[in-house]
Amino acid sequence: MGMSTKVKMLLAAREMTIKDLAEKIGTSSQNMAAKLRRDNLSEKDLHEIAKACDAVFEGTFTLNDTGKEI
């Protein structure tokens, strides 16, 4: 499973859209959608995404409030 799939699962768990995520990390929704489409996310991107979603990135996402790993 690619990281873009995991990010999409994280967004679903947080009931967020790509637009919501892009706003929280300070980029455009077009840029974020393109990175997800290409599955081209840097480790820095993944840490920023985790922070924006109140999660921890360790190669997987762990939801802080439930402990669920994605």
UniProtKB/TrEMBL annotation:
InterPro entries: Cro/C1-type_HTH, Lambda_DNA-bd_dom_sf. Residues 6-55 form the HTH cro/C1-type domain. Pfam families: HTH_26. This is Helix-turn-helix transcriptional regulator.
